[in-house]
Every structure is written in C-alpha cells, then in structure tokens.
Amino acid sequence: MVALGKLVADQVLELSAPLVIGGQQRVVRTTTAGGAPANVTANLARLGMPARLAGWAGADPLADELLAALAGRGVETAVVRRGRTPLSTVLVHPGGERTLLTDSGEGALEPDDVLAGWLADVAVVHLDGYDLLPGRFPDALRVAADLAHDAGVPVSVDTAAATRIRGHGAHGYIELLAGLRPDVLFCNRIEAEEVGLASDLPDWAPELALVHAGAHPTRVVTRAGAWTVPVQPLPAGRLRDTTGCGDAFVAGVLAGWCAGAPVLDAVRAGHAAAAVVAGVAGAQPPSPWSRPPTG
Question: Facing residues of 185 across strands?
C-alpha cells in the first residue's frame, strides 16, 4: 500500500499540567516522523502490511533521521527531497487531548514529481486531504489519483480538518475532493458535516464513507444503507495521547479491507489499531521492538 504526501517532523511535548499563560512547567519531549502519510505507513508496517511512503521530504539532516526511522520500521520510501522539513509541535494535555502547532516547511510536491513507479504493484493508494488546500499541492494529488485509477488501483482519501475546510470554502473543497474520484473516504463527524456526509451519500461521494468519532461508534455509509460499529472502551489509564489515532484507524481499515475482510470487520480492525496508538506519545505506533502497553 502507498500513502502519498509530505514527511513532517513531530515534536511532541507532554504537559504535566494545564497550560497557564506566563507560567512554566517541565515537559516530556519526543521527536518522531509525522504527517498523515508517514503515520499511516508506520501503522501498516506494524500490522505486517508492505507499505511505501511516497511524496516529498526535506533535504536536511532532520529528514535524514526521519526517513531512517521509517526504514527501521519496515516502511519503504520513495520521495523527492528539497527544502526544509516541516515541523509540528504537538502539545499533549493531561487526559490525552492535544493541540497541534505547525509550520509548512520550505518545499512542496510538484505534479511532475509524481512517478508512476511510486504506485507500481500496490493494492491501494491513500491520499491526505490536507494536500488539497491552498499552499499544499492539489495538482500533484490529482496526478497521483489519476495514475492510480488508470492502473486500476483503488484510491482512499482522508479529508482535511473541518476548520480548514470551512476556511477554504466547503463548496470549493468538495470539488477538489470529488476530482480525486476516491473509492473510500475517511472523515470525522464534524468533517462529514462540512462535506455533506451528515446523512446519505451525496452524488459526488464514493461508494463507501467511514465517519469516525473518537470513542463513539463509527458510521459506515454506503449506497445500500448505513451501519454503526461501536468502539471498545480503552482500559482505565491506557489513554496517553490522541495524536495520530485517526491515521491508525485508516491503516487498520485499509489493511483489513485489502486482506478481504468484510467492511464492518475492517472497521473493527481500525478501532484496534487506533487503540494501540492512543497508548503512546505521538502519532507513530509503538516500535516493533517495544513491549505492548499493559493495563
């Protein structure tokens, strides 16, 4: 499976107490590879699925470290390198919720960068809906989607955050999203409302949309009807950080779907993958050599 987009550095700061303006506190700092494509591929690799990160990475030592870390997890990388790696600072509040502060780095993926070889011999191509927004690379995303469809490869897309969709204009964003002709669409409940998926599938939407809602049931929406899949509650004390749970959910669903599992079972696999990431700091799943969390 291929996830296409840009490689980001995540600097995760676990707060020991709620933030106070003008205050001071100690934090626990972790730096990992980040960005939805890297998170999805790392989770696919943890699940034993061959995974490739394709797209753009910085041409700096920080990107060297991130790419090496992904390779150590078993993720294949096929990237164009230029500019400076984007840096996201993730503030993890007590209780597990997070605040994300990002810069865009310096560089981008151009349409001519996208190679058909990146998508060779793959079961699915996953695209990050953030990359449709201004300042990202919607044209390159469209090229990747067209190449995938021409090769008969399904395309899945995870939408951008509701605030970003609203800021861009929902109508314009939906046009860009529809232009990718996704086969599977992932979004959360608020994002679903922004793109018209609050109830039935609109005409532009794919045959399958999955609307996740954290600890609440996931809605599975098809032309034939809609179903809900409950989320198993986490054991007490297990929740550490919600960062990347959506990306882990995507990976679990795609892994199950491509392995031939029924859709509802694939969604349950997505829930299980998200639960694993909720127990660690940051958006990357536990290292293959680390012990699984207990509790």
Answer: 157, 209
pLDDT tens per residue across span 153-204: 999 999 999 999 999 999 999 999 999 999 999 999 999 999 998 778 899 9
d(CA 95, CA 149): 42
How many angstroms separate the CA atoms of 156 and 181, rounded?
A: 9
Q: Can you tell me the mean pLDDT for 30-39? A: 93
The set of residues, in sequence order, having a beta carbon less than 8 Å from that of 69 and lying 6+ positions away, is 32, 33
- Cβ atoms of 37 and 53 within 8 Å: the answer is yes
- Closest-CA residue to 156 (of 195, 130, 184, 180): 184
* Relative orientation angle of helices 170-179 and 138-150, to the nearest 10 degrees: 30
Residues 145/111, Cβ–Cβ less than 8 Å: no
